[in-house]
Amino acid sequence: MVEGTGAIRRTAAATLSGHRLTIAVLATGLLALMLAAALVGAYPISPVELLAAVGRRLAGAAPVGQIDTVLFEVRLPRVAAAVLGGAALAGAGAAYQTLFRNPLVSPDILGVSTGAGLGAVLGIFLSLPVFGIQLIAFATGLATVALVYAVASVVHGRDPILVLVLAGVVVGSLAGAAISLLKIMADPYDQLPAIVFWLLGSFSAIRRSEVWATLPMVLVGLLPLLLLRWRINVLSLGDEEAKALGVEAGRLRLVVIAAATLMTAGVVAIAGVIGWVGLVIPHIARMAVGPSFDRLLPTSMLLGGSYLLLVDTLARTMARIEVPIGILTAILGAPFFLWLLMRGREGWS
Amino acid sequence: MRKLLALLLLLAPLAAHARIVVDSAGRKVEVPDRIEKAFAAGPPASILLYMLAPEKMTGWPDPPRAEERPFIAEKYRDLPALGRLTGRGGTANLEVVLKAAPDLILDFGSVRDTYASLADNVQAQTKIPYLLIDGRFEATPKALRLLGEVLGAGERAERQAAYVEATFAEIDAVLAAVATEKRPRVYLARGPDGLETGVVGSINTEIIERAGGRNVADAAGQKGLVRASMEQVIAADPEIILTWDRNFFGKVYDDPLWAGIQAVREKRVYLAPTAPFGWIDRPPSLNRVIGLKWLAGLFYPDRIKQDLRETTQSFYRLFYHVEPSDTELDTLIAWSKGQAPSAAQQPRR
């Protein structure tokens, strides 16, 4: 096993420096984008003022006017949240696509977003405060995937992946029906708009504490994906082949699902349902660095972070009002995906 | 001649029992002379109907909540909940409408083509006359008189219309001396995070302009409810913030993100009561008239002097047919000063 991975590493060594370069370029691009995003917004802050504010912050000096609040409490947390969200969704998407050996799956495939949506809608329906809504959304997102997994694991004698996906579809549409029921029961002038906006997804209300609360979820989810990246690669060959190589598919699958779900649920809880990122970005990453998961994961995350940051910056600057980010990601993602379909199936395993 | 007389005699009962009413959408509707029962198509219409002729209601669209019940006359609190026929989240069943056997269906609000064609369809299907009445704030006296006449409640309609006109006139007299740019800049904070709002020109915020404020959410051309970002609110720096969301109101003064905004610094965030119906919206119907008086007093404390307790009492008496007790009045007044009853969702039914 150890020798096997060593061999894979050696054969990959030739292209490794090229991939390192790709990742370095992407990381630099992300940083540049973050800097640019920090400079634009509804509240006018010039680069000089930005530097001055950062200087004040570092020196521990008293804030001047609203600039410090806008910068450190509103804009930078939002930039961070968009990057974190994009990275987490794209990373989870890459994990799922490798796991399911299917390029058409997204992090929502096992119902985490719909489940979290149901929780959030319930929270709004019960007039809970924001934190309560987020907590219940996070919990129901995890619970939905746990339910899907439990349902799938009592079914024997069929392709386990097919069963998982079907269970995800069934439980997901059940949660969707429950959302619709709550929408009908909700106050149409008060709660219903809040529900609609939540389901469209947005980073507009992000605050620093929420970024700090989500970061550990994403990191805890990311850790097993990073540690197990070689095994996950083997998984993409199929259960039988994986078994022949000494990888126990069932248990590894559980770990990957749990990790990707945690990452997704953490993001969805604070930002609402944001589609397409986890579906489309891993494809672009695969075009750049190939299907090997050890390269796919970091590339997807960097690309996802840049992409969602770009889209969110558009969402908050292109019009005088906010455009819900879920709408933008769909408008940008859907045509790309169609193009991808027309291009035909690419090699991904 | 005799034949003609016979014909006239034959037609006479028809003429005596029906008349043609032109509704706000310009539709000519044949309406019986005596209306015993009327069905309100949505919450705004049900409030208009309750104000003019509660004894003719077939039911409420949604059952009143516990905290709202004391402010609805005892005889009508327990009317059945029949659902909503139009607008957001229609839940009524045409068979329910037919079973209630109203002489008239009534909708109050938008008179756009969609609603006119919906009215035509329902009317053709149920054979029950369907009136569409313009729900814009400015058209309120006209709506009252039109419907008062149709329902045979002309005298009450006249008293209520006169009250509304006097309120408008009182505010206009004050506003005549205040240039537009001197009027307070107001932000309507909806939703538990306060970042949902209505832009200039939407029915949800027209009360702001009517009461002499300027809505800071101005998105050229666009109407309706939108999500704002924290940065936009900070950049707009409103002098006054209005809300009826108790979760938002409960934390706005302790929230560092909102702390620097003028309205928060100057303690000018106001919580609107919502019993039996919202004072400033929720739904956008005649319930806003009391809010209009309240807001004008808040916007121009030096120019408009009023005894809110007395105003509330006379409004609830004339429009809601209740005589609130001293404790009930205390509840409302305290609520309008920020001490709301428990923030938890009150169960319907």
Present the secondary structure layout.
The complex is a heterodimer of chains A (about 350) and B (about 350).
Chain A: H1 2-39, H2 47-59, H3 67-99, H4 112-125, H5 130-154, H6 160-185, H7 191-200, H8 208-227, H9 229-235, H10 239-244, H11 249-271, H12 277-289, H13 293-317, H14 325-343
Helix pairs in contact in A: 1-13, 3-8, 3-11, 3-12, 3-13, 4-5, 4-6, 4-7, 4-11, 5-6, 5-11, 8-11, 12-13
Chain B: H1 2-17, E1 18-22, E2 28-32, E3 38-40, H2 43-52, H3 74-77, H4 94-100, E4 104-109, H5 113-126, E5 130-134, H6 140-151, H7 154-175, E6 185-189, E7 196-198, H8 206-210, E8 214-215, E9 225-227, H9 230-236, E10 240-243, H10 246-252, H11 256-259, H12 262-265, E11 269-271, H13 288-299, H14 308-320, H15 326-336
Parallel strand pairs in B: 3-4, 4-5, 6-8, 6-10, 10-11
Antiparallel strand pairs in B: 1-2, 7-9
Helix pairs in contact in B: 6-7, 14-15
Structure explained in plain terms:
- The complex is a heterodimer of chains A (349) and B (349).
- Chain A is built from 14 helices and no strands.
- With 349 residues, chain A is mainly alpha-helical.
- Chain A has a single domain (76-343), classed as ABC transporter involved in vitamin B12 uptake, BtuC (Orthogonal Bundle), CATH 1.10.3470.
- Chain B folds into 2 domains: 2-167, Rossmann fold; 178-336, Nitrogenase molybdenum iron protein domain (Rossmann fold, 3-Layer(aba) Sandwich).
- At the A-B interface, helix 3 and helix 7 of A face strand 9, helix 9, helix 10 and helix 11 of B.
Spans of chain A of at least 5 consecutive residues whose pLDDT stays below 50 are none
Count of domain modules of chain A: 1
CATH class identity of the largest domain in chain B: Alpha Beta
Approximately how much helix is present in the residues of chain A?
over 70%
What kind of oligomer do you see?
heterodimer
> What is the CA-atom radius of gyration of chain A, in angstroms?
21 Å
**Beginning-to-end CA distance, first to last residue of chain B:** 62 Å
Morphology of chain B = globular
- Give a quick account of the main beta sheet of chain A: strands, pairing sense, barrel closure: none
CATH fourth-tier homologous superfamily of the largest domain in chain B:
Nitrogenase molybdenum iron protein domain
Count of extended strands of chain A? 0
Please list the strands of the largest sheet of chain B in the order they lie side by side: 8-6-10-11
Mean pLDDT over all positions of chain B: 90
User: What is the beta-strand fraction of chain B?
Assistant: 5-15%
Q: In CATH's first tier, which class of chain A applies?
A: Mainly Alpha
- The tally of domains of chain B stands at 2
Could you say which overall geometry of chain A the principal axes of the C-alpha atoms support? globular
Distance between the termini of chain A: 19 Å
